[in-house]
Amino acid sequence: MTNKKPQLLRKPAVDVQVAMLSILGFWLFYVIVTTLRSLMIELPVSQVELAKLRVIVTLFGIVATFGLYGLIRLFEKKRLSVRIASAFVGAVPCALLIGIINYEVLNLYDPASLFNDQKALEEFQKLSPLALIMDVASSRYFFLVAWASLYLAISYAGEVRFAERRAARFAQAAQQAELRSLRYQVNPHFLFNTLNSLSSLVLRNRPQEADEMIMNLSTFYRTSLSGDPLDDVTLSEEVELQRLYLAIEKVRFPERLQIDIAIAEHLMDACVPGLILQPLVENAIKYGVSRSSRPVTVSIRAHEENGCLSISIADNGDPLLADIDPETSNGIGLANVRDRLDTRFGGNAKLTTMSKAEGGFEAVLTIPLTRSQIQIEQLSARADA
């Protein structure tokens, strides 16, 4: 599984093509509505000639609206209130321009050929040019404001989506940083404990065991540090790392530490966070094996239940004293595991622990059972075979 770094996103703007389509759509709607209105109220004019005038004025209207779009774009990086104000103010000269063009086109076209009724023509000629211009401009103003509102709504919706994506990227980056931090806590903590053990072997003049521990430690770190801290590993890889760790501890406790790992083969390719078992196995050594004077078995078990993978780390050491609690002890331990589970899986994973009355301690890790795509393909191929 590869985790890509979040990429920076640019602030979105409504594409010119989208803006142009919205302008054309609005004016097409205007042409359809005004044409139907003209036909329904049976104006005393030639519908064919009026339609020609309407097309000419509409073309100028499209140009004026596109100019309004350019004006709004100038304020694109301003607050929404400023953009709204620019749209409302900018629509005024655009509406006046459309009103003037409408009047000029009508007069250039010769109104006499437009009106079928002489009386209607005379009444039209009595109207003040300013009144005609303002009448058209006022209706086109609200038309332009309606388009600008649609444009600003689309633009604002784009910004909201952008902000949501950016917030999601930042949240993902923060989650990945936290996961890395929690994962990186494990290695130094483990190294500190192992070096203490190695020092003890050297002081007791046990060079062969010290050399064996160094080799196992080298193998452990070469394996554990080779992958990305955010990548999951298979359960078999995780268990193999714990075998290496237990082999290191076996040098410290050759007589006391007994190891019992029993996991079904079909679960070995399940995905788990890397080194998620390390603190749990460490706890078993610290509170089970090191405090006991008799052989103690550290067991690792796993089973599938309701689509989840449950992994148990248990020991049968001596009963814990009242003042010893692995839950609140110093070090990273169980708190690290819980934090990693919460960051990685949210409420879909948990860690439960219990002290056994007869002695020992058990930690049960429950996570969603998942497999990588490669593993799924391999399982399918095996099933087909």
Account of the 3D structure:
The structure is a single chain. With about 375 residues, this protein is α+β, with helices and mostly antiparallel strands. Helix content is about 65%, strand content about 10%. The chain contains 10 helices and 7 strands. The chain has helices spanning about 15-40, 45-75, 80-110, 120-125, 130-205, 205-225, 235-250, 280-290, 335-345, 375-385; strands at about 230-235, 255-265, 270-275, 295-305, 310-315, 350-355, 360-370. A 5-stranded mixed beta sheet has the order 2-4-5-7-6, with helices on one face. The chain has a two-stranded antiparallel sheet with strand order 1-3. Helix 5 (about 130-205) runs antiparallel to helix 6 (about 205-225). The protein is rod-shaped, with a radius of gyration of 38 Å. About 25% of the residues are buried.
Secondary structure layout plus pairing:
Elements: H1 16-41, H2 47-74, H3 80-109, H4 118-126, H5 129-203, H6 207-224, E1 232-234, H7 235-252, E2 257-263, E3 271-273, H8 278-289, E4 296-305, E5 308-315, H9 333-345, E6 350-355, E7 361-368, H10 373-384
Parallel strand pairs: 2-4
Antiparallel strand pairs: 1-3, 4-5, 5-7, 6-7
